[in-house]
Design goal:
1 helix, mainly alpha, about 80 residues, about 0% strand
């Protein structure tokens, strides 16, 4: 005996289905059974320095450009 369980509902037991398994207009098709998605791997949980390094470099470059234009305009000492 195999333990292959199909989580989809049996079309012969589902209401609202037309012959051939299609769904009439205006009717919602049956949903799959409740199946656990399994373990989710969102990430390692470790903080990485990569994104913060990029943000920091962009901020430093923007500040340097602002200081350059302020100095050219004579607004800095």
């Amino acid at each position: 005996m195999t333990s292959n369980h199909n989580p989809d509902p049996d079309p012969t037991e589902s209401t609202g289905l037309e012959p051939g398994g299609s769904v009439p207009p205006g009717e919602t098709p049956p949903d799959s059974g409740s199946v656990g998605p399994g373990p989710t791997t969102a990430g390692s949980g470790k903080r990485t320095i990569g994104p913060w390094l990029v943000v920091g470099l962009v901020v430093v470059i923007v500040l340097m450009i602002m200081l350059f234009f302020l100095a050219r305009a004579g607004l800095l000492l």
